Structures are given as C-alpha cells and as structure tokens.
Amino acid sequence: MTANEDQEMELEALRSIYEGDEGFKEVSPVSFQFRIGNLEDIKAFILDITWPETYPETAPEISLDAFFNNRISAETKQMILSKLEEQVEANLGTAMMYTLFEWAKDNQEALMENHKPVVTAVALTSSSDVTTTSSTTKKREKKEQLTKAQKRRIINRTDNKGELPRGWNWVDVIKVGAFHLFSTRWCSTSYL
Questions:
Q1: Which of 7, 66, 118, 142 counts the highest number of beta carbons within 10 A?
Q2: Least confident residue range of 19-28, 33-42, 109-118, 164-173
C-alpha cells in the first residue's frame, strides 16, 4: 500500500472512532487536534498533529502551539513533545494516531506532573499612568438612570429617526377651546 492509501484508511478509522468526541477535531484530511483532558481541567492540553506526504513511513509533525496551551510552561511543553517523540519512534511505519492520542490520555498525569500554570500579566510603564486612570475614574459622575416606563414613553413619542414629532408637547387647542366653551356655557346657564 502507498502512503496515501494508508492515510485514507487511518483517516476513516479516526473518523469512526472519534465520531461525536468533542476532544477530536479534524482540521484538514492531514491535520488533527486532540484535547487531552476536560476543558475545565487545568492540566488539559491540545495536541496538533499534521501528517507529511510520506506518513506513516515518516514521523508526523506534533505541536503544542494551540492558544489553549498558552498557560503551559515551555519546559512542560518540551517534555511532553519529547515523550511523544519516543512513542512516534516506537510506532514508525504503522498507523499511530490512535495510539498517540490514547497514550497521551493514559499518561496525562505523568506528562503534566510538573505543570505550573503560566500567568501572563500586563504591567504599566509608569506610576503616573496609574494615578491618571484612578483620578479619572473618581471624577466620573453617575448618569441619571431612566426606568423602563420612562424609556418606553420616550420611544413611543419618537419617530423612526429618534426625533420627536412636531408639536408633540402642544396642547390640543380645539379640545381645550371646546372644553372652555362648554364649561363657560354650563357655568352661565347653571347660575341663571
């Protein structure tokens, strides 16, 4: 069998084995990601594996450069890669993806035993930056908060452009005039 036929057979096997597995991701027909551990686990990591054209006769390219792995120290990454390289050498010439994934899952604790999460922080360059930012936050005044009913009234009064219609606060002259006229007649007739 040629390398491409071996790759096709292994690809079919991987798809059937890891169908529905959230930890397995086929990036392309020759590139895969596999998460070792649960998302919430601080010792979880993602393996990126890419097949060269002559895989499985030549070793796959293994990487831990996924963003998910940023919290893992460089020393721990190097140790994981060296242990995986040993497994690759032992399985060279055969379909080894399943073997590598399962070996990494089984040995996750040993691979991550010296793991200390890397915390990245952004430092300010001068103390004047700290004083200016803290003084501006103190000076900010709270805006008056509107209730839902007030917001609803404002929205109901505006047109589609957000503007109030002309005369929105005018008094209805005809109604007031009619009321005034009616009240005048009523008052004049009732006292007469």
A1: 7
A2: 164-173
Helices 3-17 and 97-106: crossing angle, nearest 10°?
40
The structure's pTM equals 0.56
Supply 128's token pair. 């004047």
Pairing of strands 45-50, 31-36: antiparallel
Comparing CA positions, the residue from 49, 52, 51, 56 lying closest to residue 2 is 56
What are the tens digits of pLDDT across the range 77-88?
888 898 999 999
